[in-house]
Amino acid sequence: MMSKKTSEFRMPAEWEPQKSVWMSWPHNENDWPGLFEKIPNVVGKIIKYLTKYQRIDLLVNNTKSIYTIKIYLKKIGCNISNIKFHKLKTDRLWLRDSGPIFLVNKNNKKKTILNFKFNAWSKYKNFRNDNKINNYISRYLNIESILPKKVNSKKFERVVMEGGAFDNNGSGSILLTRECLLSSKQERNKGFKKIDYENLFSKYLNAKNFVWLNKGIVGDDTHGHIDDIARFVSKRTIMIAVEKNRSDKNYKALKENLKILLNSSDENGKKFKIIKVPMPSPVVIEKTRVPASYLNFFISNKTVLVPVFNVKEDKKVLKIFRKFFIDRKVIAIDCSDLIWGFGAIHCMTQQEPKI
Length: 355
Prior knowledge:
The protein is α/β, with parallel strands linked by helices. It has a single domain (about 5-355), classed as L-arginine/glycine Amidinotransferase, Chain A, CATH 3.75.10.10. The chain contains 8 helices and 19 strands. The protein has helices spanning about 40-50, 65-75, 95-100, 135-140, 180, 195-205, 250-260, 315-325; strands at about 10, 20-25, 55-60, 85, 100-105, 110-115, 145, 165-170, 175, 210-215, 230-235, 235-240, 275-280, 285, 290, 300, 305-310, 330-335, 350-355. The chain has a 4-stranded mixed beta sheet, covered by helices on one side. It is globular, with a radius of gyration of 19 Å. About 45% of the residues are buried.
């Protein structure tokens, strides 16, 4: 369903009050070849810390699994009363990308969802189940679902978009990368140009300020998602990944991104406050460099869950986070196995705002 008055909506920032966090339980062994048995433990730990303070809506593939998962989560100390289990078949657990983008109507305070099309980052063939998630959530919550289409186009074609491809400060500024959205490799929307994406976010998110960084990090199979390299942590503060080692493959691209950001302004024309976050030492699994980054953190109501990788930079980075997030508890989550699926904590969570 299309809403005529999309100008009334905005996407709340991640640090704003949340009603729930939508997640999916891992089941696709092909995403972590050889390491899958360790993944439920990592996901369980994330759920444990989140359910201490807030609700989780958890998608599970079948009824039988719900029973065993419930027993397991109870055993590891999760607050089961804060978990709503949903039987829904999914392809993967990366709900940041396959799940809905929640909007709030500024006038009547009602929620709606942006129901983007999901096509597994224009890379994998199995995404049919994931592409049904938004319809399920829309029906379950009984809220309107907006199907975004290309602005100023006569024919209706749903836009492909993932939540990890852009970051939002809740008041009109958006972070994106050229590599992800403007490259012909893993092209999401054929023929889309920079202006098409800006028109899209302007119409559906009421964004008016766009900061285009260049490239993502090595090993990222989404081809340049922003949530590994730069994130809003307040309206005018951005954490950005930096690499000091000149011989590292990420050095040049991250240096360019920092330069762009230093010359950028917020929606009111004011310079951003920038917090540099070092990259972890390269994480290599099965001779493959994986996209390990501390920027794939998740801000919840009372906590900030930060991925760590058992490398020397972990301690320094946690100090940076604790210095900034003084009103939330910063919790380190060992993601050195989870990252073998090419995603971390932000990739697998999708917040539903509280009204």
